[in-house]
Backbone:
């Protein structure tokens, strides 16, 4: 059986119309390859920053510190006391946030405490509305948290009582150390007050929401804090 002759790399030897001597790539193939490469570069320029923005938090490692906010006798169990903590370092007043703190009421706060936090004595609620992130304020006369931006209303425990918010207000881990109530990392809750790692406003945690908006752990915890 005769040996098959190797195909020449030159376009002229292959009888391609319009070919010239010494050419190894047709002009059409060159232009198509150039267009594909340009398209790939343009697509990468759009997708890579987007992927970095979406996946970056998975690899961030924020060190969280516990911040003292007052002595235990400052916080009753029938109302909230506002306290200011530093939520983000290095940006001055913009990095501060208000936390509403009260002592746990055994007749009201019947949610199950996670392992390692059975002795947690206080409730610390975030002022960030779970609709679009606007600040809420506790109104003592109504025993409600009110968002003035879009009419979000939360009850005494921070559960949604009206308006567009998709889940209860976020909370903060807390503990008592050296005679001071200390505020730690933030966490999110569903309507049963089950704890989840922090989610963004507008991300529900009940039903299919827990699947559509999965955990994004970005915090190096100082203690063994429960995960989803």
Residues:
């Amino acid at each position: 059986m005769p040996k098959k002759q190797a195909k020449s790399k030159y376009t002229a030897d292959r009888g391609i119309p319009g070919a010239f001597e010494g050419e190894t790539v047709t002009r059409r193939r060159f232009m198509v390859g150039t267009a594909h490469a340009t398209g790939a570069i343009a697509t990468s320029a759009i997708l890579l920053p987007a992927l970095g923005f979406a996946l970056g938090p998975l690899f961030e490692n924020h060190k969280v510190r516990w911040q003292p906010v007052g002595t235990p006798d400052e916080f009753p169990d029938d109302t909230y006391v506002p306290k200011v903590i530093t939520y983000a370092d290095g940006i001055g007043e913009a990095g501060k946030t208000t936390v509403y703190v009260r002592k746990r009421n055994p007749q009201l706060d019947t949610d199950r405490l996670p392992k390692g936090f059975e002795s947690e004595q206080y409730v610390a609620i975030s002022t960030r509305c779970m609709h679009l992130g606007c600040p809420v304020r506790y109104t003592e006369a109504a025993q409600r948290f009110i968002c003035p931006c879009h009419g979000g209303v939360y009850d005494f425990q921070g559960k949604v009582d009206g308006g567009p918010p998709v889940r209860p207000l976020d909370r903060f881990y807390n503990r008592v150390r050296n005679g001071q109530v200390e505020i730690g990392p933030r966490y999110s809750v569903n309507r049963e007050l089950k704890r989840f790692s922090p989610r963004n406003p507008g991300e529900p945690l009940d039903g299919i929401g827990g699947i559509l908006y999965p955990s994004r752990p970005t915090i190096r915890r100082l203690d063994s804090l429960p995960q989803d």
Remarks:
- The chain has a mean pLDDT of 82.
- The chain is about 15% helix and 25% strand.
